[in-house]
Amino acid sequence: MDLKAYIRDIPDFPEPGILFRDITPLLQSPAAFRYAVDQLKEHVQSMPIDAIVAVESRGFLFGAPLAYQLGKALVPVRKRGKLPSKTFATDYSLEYGSNSMEIHADGVASGARVLLMDDLLATGGTLAATARLVEMSGARVTGIGLVIELLALKGREKLKGYNVFSLIQY
Fold it and tell me: Does residue 58 carry a catalytic annotation?
């Protein structure tokens, strides 16, 4: 299946000059969504994973069904102030600003092997911050899974040393 056929381009969102790759049509197609989750599962099922850390918010959409299918824990990473218990936090830069992310301090066990899951890799700031949070917990990132990767923004450069894979590249 050509998953690119289910990605919609939205120019000048969320700011002028940004071309947003919208996954909504993929989510609206049960066959395309199932195919994407199945492809992610096929790629990671032989990896040593104890937990899937999904990045707010679109990473949840793919991390949750993947964790369910693999029988692994699902750990959310959220924007600052959204998690109710003790957290680790880190700041990061976005393509069009900055932000802060948090993970529950007890979200992943020390020594756990973790797959990071998000919908898109742009500049790599969000995923690099998420990897830092996992490592603050004493866990180890064994892979980073994505639906879309924007190659021109060179996000992999911020993720050197990690096993990164994506289903779609632009």
Answer: yes
